Amino acid sequence: MTLQIIQVGLGGWGKDWARDVVAKNKDVETTAWVEIDAATLQEAQQRLKLPVERCFTSLDEALTTVSADAVLVTASLPGHVPSARTALQAGKHVLMEKPFAPTVAEAHELVELAARQECLLMISQNYRFFPAPRAVARLIQQQAIGRVGNVNIDFRRYDNLAPVETHRHYHIWEPLLVDMSIHHFDLMRLVIGQEPVQVFCKTWNAPWSKYDEPAEGAMTITFDGGAVVNYRGSWVSTGPQTNWAGEWHVEGEKGELVWTSRGETQETASIQLLGEEKPTPIDILEIGPLDRAGSLAAFVHAIQTNTNPETSGEANLKTLALMFAAVESARTGLPVNIA
Ligand SMILES: NC(=O)c1ccc[n+]([C@@H]2O[C@H](COP(=O)([O-])OP(=O)(O)OC[C@H]3O[C@@H](n4cnc5c(N)ncnc54)[C@H](O)[C@@H]3O)[C@@H](O)[C@H]2O)c1
């Protein structure tokens, strides 16, 4: 059975979802597109050649006009909770872009609403759908490097060339921690297989940064199984660019795993045990649809099989809690425990 969806939010990333992800999935049919900004809706309608009668500026209107099983939320963060709430109240499943919600309380509210409505609520943590983090997570689970100790992660990009007035990204809330590091926080939980318990974070802006809020940061995160992550991230780094997942060095008692994923340079992972002279590449296995296609396929599969996806709203609460703890630590200058 084809899953009928309404897509909400047609900014840069939403248009990309419509064209490159949803349109290519044979199990899904989009029955309406919603964008709150009329000019953006018109531009998207023309660019993507969408039927005018299926384009709306309100999700409520779309829900009463077309049939749908689910709603895909690709709006910017202020649109996440209102769109998901409306969809769930109408009894529709929801797949939503990261970050889940602007407050932990609203995220909990949506998780409870989804449970009451017996609907699926899933967050698209698309960085999980790549072979390298999966391969490394499996090796860690199999104790290939023994107990995990120190984990060093670096993320560097130079997103500082666009005109400051028109580039929305320069003006969003917490562009590093909330918009970007959320991916890395979620990957830490997947790869290390432990849950975060405390974070001590500092953020800042380089003198040349065009961002309003901190575009750079560093933090130490402790995990419940004893792992300690040292993370450095920057949107305005003049150093060599990393892939989007960053560069990871995971030290265990028996040796080290090194990996990177999702970007311009090759997806790689290697292992070097104590006493070995050089690292051995790890077989990167096929994992099925990648990136957002993987998220969407997992969402469809979970609905078809009535099972919980690994990035359900409820499962994503810990990722979100780490993100908010990092924001609070950066603001107060103090370590913050994660409930
Ligand atoms: N997973 C990834 O790799 C990745 C990459 C880029 C962006 N994103 C996420 O995708 C989302 C959209 O990002 P973007 O770059 O397209 O942002 P954007 O600001 O370019 O576009 C967002 C669009 O959502 C619309 N919108 C806001 N509230 C709405 C509502 N209530 N109803 C309908 N439309 C609404 C806005 O009018 C805007 O056109 C964000 O959550 C962002 O974090 C994820």
From TrEMBL:
Domain of life, per lineage: Bacteria
GO molecular function, one term: nucleotide binding
Coiled coil: none
Gene3D superfamilies xrefs: Dihydrodipicolinate Reductase, domain 2, NAD(P)-binding Rossmann-like Domain
Domain Gfo/Idh/MocA-like oxidoreductase N-terminal stretches: 8-123
InterPro entries membership: Gfo/Idh/MocA-like_OxRdtase_N (IPR000683), Gfo/Idh/MocA_Oxidoreductases (IPR051450), GFO_IDH_MocA-like_dom (IPR055170), NAD(P)-bd_dom_sf (IPR036291)
Domain GFO/IDH/MocA-like oxidoreductase intervals: 134-257
Name assigned to this protein: Oxidoreductase
Record lineage: Bacteria, Bacillati, Chloroflexota, Ktedonobacteria, Ktedonobacterales
